[in-house]
Design a protein that fits this description.
- With 414 residues, this protein is an alpha/beta fold.
- The chain folds into two domains: 156 residues, Aspartate Aminotransferase, domain 1, CATH 3.90.1150.10; 246 residues, Aspartate Aminotransferase, domain 2, CATH 3.40.640.10.
- 45% of the residues lie in helices and 13% in strands.
- The chain is built from 14 helices and twelve strands.
- Strands 2-8-7-6-5-3-4 form a seven-stranded mixed β-sheet, with helices on both faces. It has a three-stranded antiparallel β-sheet with strand order 9-12-11.
- Helix 6 links the parallel strand 3 and strand 4.
- Helix 2 runs parallel beside helix 12, helix 3 runs antiparallel to helix 10 and helix 5 runs parallel beside helix 6.
């Protein structure tokens, strides 16, 4: 019997699996692992959202099948969020669909609009679903390196030039472009001028734009991230994915949205109608309460991440590891510190675990252009961050010996 399944065999080995196994083994042996690996928010969901869930779940009628595209009140609440936050008016009937987190929405839209062999332009490094959702759907990926300026900020003009080369040298012509700002894993941000150039580019070449703004509320300066739909005419070519996971500390609730072009929303809605009955109705009602209710909880959650970011940058800097302060997201993206840099991101992640009980995500897991970097999630409190920095300081003080020992064991294994 054939077990060489077509779509499964197209997927590369899961880079994070080995690090996850090492974490599990260390914890089983009694180690206290300080885990910056997975971006799993640790804060409590705001009380008024939980209370609405409890209130709604006590009504037996809500235990029935729900609506795949989202109950009307939830879609209206998301449309209200776009009007309030971005000044964008969307039709909740035709331009909004609720998803089981942004990840599910991206994957199912990829299945809805991709034919085998379709070329998709995806950023690299990027959150894995941005690329692999289309790979699972049978598409052909063309990875677009995300350029930065000398000061480490996003180079929008360089990105457009790279897209232009990709379009001119792709056969067939690309069907869609995926963008993600604020970016996971790099935390890069873009401005509205870049979105305007991107929309003009997509309209000129008749290419769909898929924008992931899951971290639109996780920013640390006075410049809130924009929606691509703020650009006049963007809704003709673009759809945007959002999530309540980080904004309201609701990761396990699996509540997200796709908003934008009615044809793309219609395609996603039709695919979903065959695959699911939507999130549990009480979760959808509580999600609407999150969007319609008091919004000061967002600023409170953002303040926690800002404090953790500042503590991480300061404490690790004193330990000898200079980590750039991310302007947005709940992640820091850092080059592997010297003298570990020659070993690569996977080896450094293993060494951190083995020598310091500190877990990070190797950059190569987000694409080949992520090599040489690691991602640190801001999911440990300030005390734990400082504890991790003390362990890193000891590792840095003994770096040459550790590297020599690691290289020696690697050679012996060969």
């Amino acid at each position: 019997m054939n077990t060489d399944f077509y779509r499964v065999k197209r997927l590369p080995p899961y880079v994070f699996a080995e690090v996850n196994r090492m974490k599990a083994d260390l914890r089983a042996d009694g180690h206290d692992v300080i885990d910056f690996g997975m971006g799993n928010p640790d804060m409590d969901t705001p009380a008024h959202i939980v209370e609405k869930l409890v209130e709604t779940v006590q009504r037996p009628r809500t235990h029935r099948y729900s609506a795949s595209r989202g109950i009307p009140g939830l879609r209206k609440a998301q449309a209200g969020y776009y009007a309030r936050r971005f000044g964008v008016e969307v039709d909740p009937e035709t331009e909004v669909v609720a998803t089981l987190g942004s990840k599910e929405g991206l994957a199912n839209l990829a299945a809805a609009i991709s034919a085998p062999g379709d070329v998709i332009l995806a950023p690299n490094p990027s959150y894995p679903i941005h690329a692999f959702g289309f790979m699972i759907a049978g598409g052909t990926l063309r990875h677009i390196p995300v350029p930065t300026k000398d000061d480490g900020t996003f180079d929008g003009e360089g990105y457009i030039r790279t897209l232009d080369r990709a379009v001119r040298h792709s056969v067939p012509k690309p069907a869609a472009i995926v963008v993600n700002f604020p970016s996971n894993p790099t935390a890069l941000v873009c401005d509205l001028d870049f979105y305007a150039e991107l929309v003009a580019f997509a309209r000129r070449h008749e290419i769909w734009l898929l924008s992931d703004v899951a971290y639109a509320e996780m920013y640390y300066d006075d410049n809130p991230p924009h929606s691509i739909l703020e650009v006049p005419g963007a809704i003709d070519v673009a759809v945007e994915f959002t999530s309540l996971s980080k904004t309201y500390a609701m990761p396990g609730w699996r509540m997200g949205f796709a908003v934008g072009n009615k044809h793309l929303i219609g395609a996603l809605t039709r695919i979903k109608s065959y695959l699911d009955y939507g999130a549990f109705t009480p979760i959808q009602v509580a999600a609407a309460a999150a969007l319609n209710g008091p919004q000061d909880c967002i600023a409170d959650i953002r303040a926690v991440y800002r404090e953790r970011r500042d503590t991480l940058v300061e404490a690790m800097g004193r330990a000898g590891w200079a980590i750039p302060a991310p302007p947005a997201t709940m992640f820091a993206w850092s080059a592997v510190p010297a003298p570990f840099d020659r070993l690569g991101s996977m080896a450094f992640a293993k060494i951190l675990l083995q020598e310091a009980d500190v877990a990070v995500s190797p950059g190569v897991g987000f694409g080949e252009y992520g090599e040489g970097h690691v991602r640190l999630a801001l999911v440990e409190n300030e005390q734990r961050i400082r504890q991790a920095a003390r362990k890193v300081r000891k590792l840095m003080d003994d770096a040459e010996a550790v590297v020599a020992r690691y290289e020696g064991s690697a050679e012996a294994a060969e």
